[in-house]
Each structure stands twice: as C-alpha cells, then as structure tokens.
Write a structure and sequence with these properties.
With 217 residues, the chain is α/β, with parallel strands linked by helices. Helices cover 46% and strands 12% of the residues. The strands form two sheets. The protein has a three-stranded parallel β-sheet with strand order 1-4-3, with helices on one face. Strands 2-5 form a two-stranded parallel ribbon. Helix 2 crosses helix 3 (72-80) and helix 7 crosses helix 8 (145-151).
Length: 217
C-alpha cells in the first residue's frame, strides 16, 4: 500500500472536523429555530440533502466514468488532465478545480481519504457522506485499508495492491472503477447506472449487470 499525501500540502481547513465547528453549530441552531417555527420540515430537508448527497452529485461522476469506459481518447485525457476532461462535460466549480483521476486495475485498487478534514470533489460526487468526514475512517483508511474495505463489503485478492490517496485542498481524486464484465454494447447512459458514489471513492465496486437488473422497479 502506498500513501500519497502530495508532499503534505496544507489543507484549507483547521482542526479536527470530527467535532462540530462554530459554523456547524450555528447552522444546527438556525435549523432548530426554523423547524420549531414551522418554516422548514426536517424530514423534507433530510430527503433533499440525501438527494444531493447520493443521487444528483454522484450522477455527474458516473457520467465521467461511463465516458471513460467507452471512449479511449477521453480516458487518456482524463489520465493526463482530469480537471479539463471533467470540465468538458460541464462539471466544474469550487471544490473541483484540481482533479486527478486514478484508475482501478486487477493489480491495483485505489481508495480516497482526507486525513485532516473532509476535502471532497463536490462537482462530481455531490456532498461528502458523513462516514467520509469521520475520524475513524480518516485514520483507518491509511492504517488498515483492506480492513476498511471489508467493512464496506469489498473483498479483494491478496495480489491486488491497495493505494490510498490523500485528498487535499489543492488536489482531489476521482477513482475510475473497473468496468463490469457483461456490459459489452451498453450505452453510456446504461453504464452510468452501474457507477456508485462509493465506487468513485474506492470504498465500493461498480454494480454488476445482475445487480442493476435486480434494482429495476
């Protein structure tokens, strides 16, 4: 396993974000007041946050991955200059200015963590999940990546090396999962349905065609 901190670049966040900071506390207090006065519905707010966290945001990244699976030229561009390649699909903005794409292979599996806070590529993955920001994940992903993957239900061959990339304020990573077998001839839109948020962080794998069929209503 290799841990690449990118020469220990400074993060743009201070302190341990496993605890609520002053701004988080103010937001929580404001949310509580608005809920008590009936201006917002906490349940509806939770649904909205979940939508951006698990659906709308990750769909952008899924399109990037699906395009890379289908288009060798785009895949090469993504490897050379991920920021430009991703921006060409319309996904750019704050928290996604300096992107690096790392591709999973039979020999190497990539996983992303932010060891100091919660740097995360919002334009392609949406809001970071709570576990990504937690102290246990941030520490254990580096010390015991294979154990962390097992907790996410990912079991890799012993011959597959695991490389952990430390996301920073200056560089953020997007994992390109391996394309599942049995998807020959699939469209970009259908392939994108196989790409999950966790597979682009490296704590999961792309869904299989069988899993995709079972999930259909």
């Amino acid at each position: 396993m290799a841990h690449d901190p990118h020469h220990d670049h400074d993060h743009d966040h201070d302190g341990d974000h496993s605890e609520l900071g002053p701004m988080d506390l103010r937001v929580r207090a404001l949310q509580s007041v608005l809920s008590q006065k009936g201006y917002i519905d906490p349940a509806a707010l939770d649904v909205l946050i979940d939508t951006y966290q698990t659906r709308i945001g990750p769909r952008n990244g899924a399109r990037v991955v699906a395009r890379a699976w289908l288009d060798p030229a785009f895949r090469d561009w993504l490897g050379r200059d991920a920021s430009a390649a991703i921006a060409s699909l319309g996904f750019a903005g704050r928290q996604g200015e300096h992107m690096v794409a790392v591709e999973n292979t039979d020999d190497q599996h990539n996983m992303v963590v932010c060891t100091l806070c919660s740097c995360y590529p919002w334009p392609v993955l949406g809001l970071p999940p709570s576990w990504y920001k937690s102290a246990p994940y941030r520490s254990r992903a580096v010390k015991d990546p294979r154990g962390v993957l097992a907790e996410f239900g990912v079991s890799l061959p012993d011959t597959t090396a695991i490389r952990v990339w430390d996301s920073t304020a200056e560089v953020r990573y997007l994992v390109i999962p391996q394309r599942p077998d049995g998807t020959e001839g699939w469209s970009e839109e259908r392939l994108a349905e196989l790409v999950t948020r966790d597979s682009m962080i490296g704590t999961g794998l792309a869904r299989t065609p069988e899993a995709e069929r079972r999930s259909r209503p």
